[in-house]
Amino acid sequence: MMLDSIPNLPVLKAERFMLRPIRKSDEGLLSLYAADERVARMTRSIPHPLPPGAMAAFTRRYLAEDRPGDVWVMDGTASGAGEMLGLMLLEPLGRDQSEISYMVAPAFWNTGIATEALQTVLDANPHDAAQICAEVFQDNPGSARVLTNCGFDYLGDAEAHSVARGAMVPTWTYLRKMRP
Known about the structure:
Elements: E1 12-13, E2 18-21, H1 27-34, H2 37-40, H3 54-63, E3 70-76, E4 82-94, E5 97-104, H4 113-124, E6 131-137, H5 141-149, E7 153-162, E8 167-177
Parallel strand pairs: 5-6
Antiparallel strand pairs: 1-2, 2-3, 3-4, 4-5, 6-8, 7-8
């Protein structure tokens, strides 16, 4: 069943923007940002060049009742910052654990948006996870700072496949304990 919005996903209030569920109308800006090679290369799953319909498929997948996780749009409309500043994605892994990832539009890099959005999701802990894990490519130290600024502990090095790069890429892995 296709929904225009996700009824059981809370809107989260950050200081400068809100985190709201993704909606079909986000596909245009999402496609614009995801098509940027600088963005795609820092993710595991965004291809570059971006094929037609890729972000429509992403939106459909995360609007479905059986979606694999939860996606929030960083929406700065109320403050005049823009309708989509980026995305936060929280996927349950089982055993009381979730994985978080994020994407910020290049115009908003180095503004603290990612840190603010991540901290807002962590404070809400909508999956009631005991632990939240994350990974970043080692050539993206800005995203590593976002994680450490939000209380994540470095676990070690690993590798993950990047579709945009067509290769395995060294990563840093992180974990944040959400409760004792």
